[in-house]
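Hey forum,

I'm writing up a methods section and want to include a predicted complex as supplementary material. The small molecule is flavin-adenine dinucleotide. I've pasted the protein sequence and the SMILES. Can someone with a working setup run it? I'll credit the forum in the acknowledgements.
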Amino acid sequence: MLRAPTKTTPRPLAGGRHLLLVGGGHAHLGVLRAFAMRPEPGLTLTLVARELDALYSGMLPGLVAGLYREEECRVDLLPLAAAAGARLIHDSAVGLDLAAGRVLCARHPSLGFDLLSLDIGSDSRLDVPGAAEHGLPVRPIGSFPARLEAALAALGSGTPRLAVVGGGAGGAELALSLRRRLAAGGRPAEVVLLAGHALLPRAGALARTVLGRALRRRGIRVLEGAEVTRAGPEGLALADGRQVACDLALWATGAAAPAWLAETGLALDPQGFVAVDAALRSVSDPRVFAAGDVAAVLPHPREKAGVYAVRQGRPLAANLRRALRGEALRPFRPQRHALALIGTGDGEAVALRGRLALSGAWLWRLKRRIDRRWVEGFRVPAAMPAEEEEAPMRCAGCGGKVPAEALSAALRRLPALPGRGDILLGLEAPDDAAVLLPPEGEALVQTVDMFRAFLGDLHLFGRIAANHALGDIHAMGGRPLAALAIAALPHGPAARLAEDLHAMLAGAQEVLEAEGARLVGGHSAEGAEIALGFAVTGAVAPARLLRASGLRPGDRLVLTKPLGTGVILAAAMRGAARSAWLEAAVASMQRSSGPAARVLVEAGATACTDVTGFGLLGHLGGMLRASGLAARLDPEAVPLLAGVREALARGIRSTLHEANAAAVAGLLDPALLAAPERAALLDPQTAGGLLAGVPAARAAACLAALRRLGCEAAVIGTVEPGPPRLRLGPEAVPAAVPVPG
Ligand SMILES: Cc1cc2nc3c(=O)[nH]c(=O)nc-3n(C[C@H](O)[C@H](O)[C@H](O)COP(=O)(O)OP(=O)(O)OC[C@H]3O[C@@H](n4cnc5c(N)ncnc54)[C@H](O)[C@@H]3O)c2cc1C
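Reply by user p_vandermeer:
Happy to help. Structure tokens for the complex are below, copy them as they are.
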């Protein structure tokens, strides 16, 4: 039984080694569970995954048939990785530099490893002309449900004609599932299964008979001796000259190796899969392991099926552990015949094992029980709020410096940037301090921010930390010019420190450059935990300066981003957040406030601030105190991030919540916090949105302009005369009402 994670911030490096898992396939789920149940001291574990919710192949046909909901068939990698203490990086590996011991990623800097394990599944084999353009490949399976939905939605009216190419167990089960799915939706389809040479080519006659009967009884036409030679917009051409007209052809002909493996230099089998020995270790590179479809286990060749990937999880975890400890590996022999249970989509299943075959309703019940239990075995119970003992936004103390060797290695790998006339000395010519030329006719704006890492993906954390720091400059109506980084890293080997520092700075630099700010220097120190911050310098023409004070009665209060990053991060730290929630929060935290600030300035904003650690009410309270005014707030109008309502209803709060509540207690109409979801108004925000007062007559146009930018902006209240006070009430809110006179 998995336990709730107690700590999900990146683990300090204990001088240990780095195990990099690529792909959240079936075997790697087993590896993560094994390391969650028995952590390996000193190990840094990272998972790179293209999808954050791994689809269990055994339930895919049931999902297609409409017998399961999507979330029943998927394992959310976020809590599982957290329980295993793994850093989770949402990205695709696209290459391998074996000489340097690094994995190349699509959107992140490359990742170094001491040990690498690949469980990335397979693609569909599309070797028939026209198949890539006109067929719907069933692999990779993770994205298949969405691709299928889109293809079914695009079918014209009338009875759909569907063809499934491939007569293996997967193709047959898919044909049955599709038929059931469309019939249940009141749109019966003609389904034909093109079985190539024969149905179940590697099984015995009994299996073929039982499965063939099950297919035909459900009205599925099975064409054997039907080799497809071409796919086109009208249908399929067969080798014997026959034509099969169809509206949609699904390609279930077998597995192909991911193409990028061919360039890696790893030994591959003739089909391009990673050649491994019985211990699941690459036959050409002892640092590399592979399992699941992507592995070709040379001593024990088997078909590509999830059941084999599932069984490899435990021996793979054990051998990775042995390799980390320098112990001898143990060979693993997979089962010779796997039990295949093929659901018919209508409450029965056909069981095949070797030459044996059976069918019946009890077999479907058995299959359903086995599959559900398997997926449930990877669910991580959420920790109770009381178990949270750390303040998520508090900076750890600093010790000595990060060694010069690590620092220069991290900086060396940052991309070289063109010189800038206003920066006399920066990172390209390091000195005791950076030297900038002040902008002519503009005032300087300066700010500093720092916090502990809350994501295992340090590149992403660097992006968010930079965006958060820039928020203050934007809130003042300024434009960023330069930034100094301050980073804390726990003691560890220089190479690992360099890796982590580089990941954070590379992410930050991307964001800073996009906003016109040059990273000109910084300071790095040893600390108990990973932390990053920036001192940012910006410029602003005094006439465009936005201040927190300056609100006027009648101003509409405009908020440019939804609330809830604090509660979502708190939920993620307890293993209680869905990956979709964290994804939405991460997207929001990466959204720059620069364009929104420019819209607010153009709309004549009277005052502005960025909503961060003190929460919406804290920052609004600050604006009201500074302006000597009151406001009426409509909590229903305040946009919330996905998952915030659910997390708050479960009692999850950021640790700063109570302090934020105490800070505004004297200012509030208590009715403002009457409903549980209103706790979001006190939630501390990381890289939160801007809150501005906009003259009422211009509020509607301002809101429309913000929404055109893609901001989930809203008018959430109105400024009123009177001493600083926050009242409840939607009645004064409408954005479009012009101010009389
Ligand atoms: C329609 C259909 C039905 C099937 N039904 C069954 C069945 O009932 N029983 C059965 O045993 N088998 C079944 N299979 C076969 C089964 O899907 C595969 O054998 C199984 O999924 C392989 O598991 P895996 O761990 O190798 O990879 P997958 O389960 O495919 O997982 C690979 C993971 O790696 C990620 N990934 C891929 N590339 C990268 C990258 N470059 N970087 C980072 N991450 C990456 C993917 O997002 C994915 O999450 C079926 C196949 C199909 C097509």
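Some notes you might quote in the supplement: Residues 6-15, 384-399, 732-741 have pLDDT under 50 and may be disordered. The CA atoms of residues 548 and 596 lie 16 Å apart.
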